[in-house]
């Protein structure tokens, strides 16, 4: 497969419209699968799975209600 791949940075809200308008060929993003999105675009199997993380500066103090 001798093809050239060009990465295109895009706002999250523009991903699906860009794909549908054929401005891009694929989306590589943490785009969750919803019923509404499945009606608009086709999804592949997952490429990878990662747990969600919250990252903050050390000096920030969170209220205990946020920590479970």
3D architecture notes:
This protein has helices spanning 15-20, 35-40. The chain has one domain (1-68). It is elongated. The mean pLDDT is 85. It contains two helices and no strands. With 68 residues, it is mostly helical.
Number of domains: 1
Given the structure, what is the number of helices? 2
Name the poorly predicted regions: none
Oligomer: single chain
Strand content is: under 5%
Name the helicity range. 10-25%
Largest sheet, strands/sense/barrel: none
Radius of gyration: 17 Å
Tell the overall outline.
elongated
- Number of DSSP strand runs: 0
List keywords for this structure.
single chain, 68 residues, mainly alpha, 0% strand
Task: Briefly characterize the structure.
With 68 residues, this protein is mostly helical.
Q: Helix and strand layout, with pairings?
A:
Layout lengths: L14 H6 L14 H6 L28
Pfam family, one: SBP_bac_3
Organism: Escherichia coli
InterPro entries: Solute-binding_3/MltF_N
């Amino acid at each position: 497969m001798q093809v050239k791949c060009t990465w295109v940075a895009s706002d999250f809200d523009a991903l699906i419209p860009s794909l549908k308008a054929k401005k891009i060929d694929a989306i590589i993003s943490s785009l969750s699968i919803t019923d509404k999105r499945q009606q608009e675009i086709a999804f592949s199997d997952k490429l990878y799975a990662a747990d969600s993380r919250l990252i903050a500066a050390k000096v920030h103090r969170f209220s205990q209600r946020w920590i479970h």
